[in-house]
Every structure is written in C-alpha cells, then in structure tokens.
Design brief:
single chain, mainly beta, Methylamine Dehydrogenase, Chain H, 2 domains, five-stranded antiparallel beta sheet, four-stranded antiparallel beta sheet, repeat, WD40_PAC1, WD repeat
C-alpha cells in the first residue's frame, strides 16, 4: 500500500481528566473522559473546534466509551455509573437513557450496522443487547462467563456480534438467539470473510481472518510485535488496509495489514494512549491521553 508520513496536526485540550475513548463520524470527533463528560469536535476551516452542543453532560461518573450510530446522527456513551446515554449529535439533546440491570460499571457500547441494536458490556460479567427503536427496551441479557467485558463489535452481518472479555478471549454470538458459535471473532470487509484485530496485556496486536457460513472458521493472519506495554486499543483505517494500535508504552503504531509491516511509530505522546480512531475518510487519526 502507498505510505504517508503521519504528523501531529493539532492538540485539543478541554477535558479535565484522562480521555478514555474516541470515535469519528465523517470528520466529527467525539471524545469521552473520566471527568464525566463527552465532547464533540468539528473540523472546520482547517482545524478542530468544539461544537456548540458540547460538552454533553449527564453521566454521574467517568465515561469509558463512545460510538457514533451508523448514520452519525446519534452518539452512544457509557459510564462507570452503569448508564448509557444516546445523544443527538447536532443539538446535544438526550435522545434516550438506559441503565445496566445491575448498575455495574460499563466498559463498552457498540451499535449494530443498521443502528437498530446497541450492545453493552461491563464489570458484572453481563452482556446486554438493547433495541434502539421507539422503546429503547432491553432485548437480551445474559452472563456467558465469569469475566468483565471490555469491548463489543458487530461484523457487517448483523445477526452476530463479538464481545471481548478481560479473560483474554473473543467469542461470536448469535444476536437473535444467543447460542455461541464454536469459534471466536469477526470484523471485516468481504462478503463472508472478515478481518478482526485484537490487542491486550501481552503487548501484542493480532489480526485474524474469519469465514462465516454454517460454521465459523478462524485462523491467525498476523501477530504484530512492537509495543513494550499493554496495547489498549486497535482500529482499522477505512478500507481495512492499515491498522493503528495505541498502548501503555506512550506510542501509537501504524501497521500494513497486507504485508504485516510496521509503517510508522508515533512517539510524541507524554503518557499512555488508551484510545485511537480514524476519521471516515482516513485523513485523520485521533488519540486520547
């Protein structure tokens, strides 16, 4: 793939605590923090400025994750207080509020590709799927194992979803009936073959290939070595040819998914990097500190 040199373009400082999560929709950036707030940033006239709707305030404790809906009109955020807020991105209005059944801390929230479902997971070992229609009702709640959940993602085929646990495993679940498939993992690009990236406390980034049919087959494509601390986040660039990983070693590394080559190491961070995200056009890479 053609390479480019990534350079620091801008630093925005409004949060009063660690930035724990970030996500892009187009060139609109959402960030969340343990300062209890969510902030929105708009790219206008060559720089990112805070939206007039920002900050989004409602959580009682630190916010752990944010994700835009597929159309970019809504934003979900989840918190240590066990709450999920769904915000109108344009106005900052609260469209809905959900509460995890046990009120345990939530670590992840993820929309399905259609935006009809929202998955959440947290410290009480419970996974929840919510109907994001008119009722905002809880559709499924179950406890598949004794470990907290740190991330959840939907592959392009909405009938399945993928939670990642603090026990170090990833599993594919049927979003309609909840039986677990035999193998683990999915995220991707092709019709029935997907790529998944995972990272963790072993300082490694792994890229997997998954084929979904009547059964799920999985094999490892790459193991990326380069970080010297816990890898806290990994995100594909649009098109899936490049992957960014951010870690506790104060670095972000860019990888070529096709060749396994390390493209660039970004080292201007002054502390650990808990999150990263590409803009929808691949022109920007945001980091949280």
């Amino acid at each position: 793939m053609a390479t480019r040199e990534w350079k620091l373009r801008q630093t925005v400082e409004s949060h009063a605590g660690d930035v724990t999560g970030c996500d892009f929709s187009g060139t609109t950036l959402a960030t969340c923090s343990n300062d209890k707030t969510v902030r929105l940033w708009l790219f206008e006239a060559g720089s990112f400025t805070e939206s007039s709707a920002s900050p989004l305030v409602g959580h009682k404790y630190g916010v752990n994750a944010v994700q835009f809906s597929p159309l970019g009109t809504a934003l979900a955020s989840c918190s240590i207080d066990g709450s999920v807020f769904i915000w109108n991105v344009q106005s900052g209005e609260v469209l809905g509020q959900l509460q995890h059944p046990s009120e345990a801390a939530l670590r992840c929230c993820s929309f399905s590709p259609s935006g009809a479902l929202l998955a959440t997971g947290g410290d009480d070992e419970t996974l929840v799927l919510w109907d994001c229609g008119h009722t905002l009702a809880r559709t499924i709640s179950w406890r598949p194992r004794r470990s907290g959940y740190l991330h959840a993602a939907f592959p392009p085929m909405v009938r399945c979803w993928l939670p990642a646990s603090s026990a170090g495993d990833l599993r594919i679940w049927d979003a309609r009936y909840c039986p677990q498939f035999e193998a683990s993992l999915a995220q991707g690009t092709l019709e029935s073959s997907y790529l998944l990236a995972s990272c963790g406390n072993d300082d490694l980034v792994r890229v997997w290939q998954v084929r979904m049919a009547h059964r799920c087959s999985l094999w490892s494509q790459w193991v990326f070595e380069g970080h010297s601390g816990n890898v806290m986040c990994c995100r594909f660039a649009p098109g899936g040819q490049m992957l960014a990983s951010s870690a506790g070693d104060k670095t972000t590394i860019l990888w070529d998914v096709g060749t396994g080559e390390q493209l660039q190491r970004l080292t201007k961070h002054t502390r650990y990097v808990p999150c990263c995200a590409f803009s929808s056009d691949g022109e920007f890479l945001g980091h949280g500190l």
